[in-house]
Amino acid sequence: MFSDLEGKVIIITGAGSGIGKSFAENFGKAKAKVVLNYRSNRHLDEIEAVKQIIHDAGGQAIAVQADIAVEEEVQQLVQAAVNEFGTLDIMINNAGFEKPIPSHKMSVEEWQKVIDINLTGAFIGSREAVNQFLKEDKKGIIINTSSVHDTIPWPNYVNYAASKGGLKLMMETMSMEYAQHGIRINNISPGAIVTEHTKEKFSDPDTRAETLEMIPAKEIGEAQDVANVALFLASDLAKYIHGTTIYVDGGMTNYPAFMGGKG
Ligand code: BGC
């Protein structure tokens, strides 16, 4: 279905776990050449497993360690893709971090850590990808993993909501700058998705019930639901889509508190 993705060179940040791992497997199955970025060695086994899945599916993969919040490391990541595969076609800024802390107790360090990873990291990744695309005169593609919290406020996660809200306008602004070069920049905003990061909270019956209250579709999503959209956005089927956010959230962004028809 996405045959145009075959042979495309794609960087996926945070590819060792969660939604990033699902992106990697899916692009591998589409026979892309995948650069799997990870930060911590604790993801090495998963990265090796993903690499194997990609090879078995007929794709190619290399793993590159880099902290996406560090400018030089992101530059080296893009360079590693170009050195290995000769070009860059698609950049997925996916790595992210969240941890609940009430706003009045949040230190500047805790605030900054999330902004650095979720927002500044995606900016550096986008900037480096755009530079590579311009250098090659290529109609490259950038996809950022955002969140429903780029629009829904999230108590106890002020740094996260601010980072994702910023990511939305960052994407829209950069898309406006580079659409004329054929560079397509878009966001995917997942809602409640089961991954190894969220498995525990969604298996708690109270949290699960509370979360389902906020989802018109009455189900928690799967990483594959998000990965399907990434394949679409990266393919030629989406060739006229610039500067858009696609919510993959079972309707969470549609004010589900109004479902009863009152108010
Ligand atoms: C977060 C999840 C959360 C979901 C809905 C996502 O951005 O990563 O932990 O369940 O938003 O609130």
Short structural description:
With 263 residues, the chain is α/β, with parallel strands linked by helices. The chain has helices at 18-29, 44-56, 71-85, 108-136, 158-178, 199-203, 205-213, 223-234; strands at 9-12, 33-38, 60-65, 90-93, 141-145, 184-190, 193-194, 221-222, 245-248. A seven-stranded parallel β-sheet has the order 3-2-1-4-5-6-9, sandwiched between helices. A two-stranded parallel sheet has the order 7-8.
Descriptive overview:
Belongs to the short-chain dehydrogenases/reductases (SDR) family. Keywords: Oxidoreductase. The structure is a single chain. It is built from 8 helices and 9 strands. It has 263 residues and is an alpha/beta fold. The longest helix has 29 residues, at 108-136. The protein is globular and about 55 Å long. It has helices spanning 18-29, 44-56, 71-85, 108-136, 158-178, 199-203, 205-213, 223-234; strands at residues 9-12, 33-38, 60-65, 90-93, 141-145, 184-190, 193-194, 221-222, 245-248. The strands form 2 sheets. The chain has a 7-stranded parallel sheet with strand order 3-2-1-4-5-6-9, with helices on both faces. Bound molecules: beta-D-glucopyranose. Beta-D-glucopyranose (BGC) is lined by residues 98, 147-149, 191-192, 198.
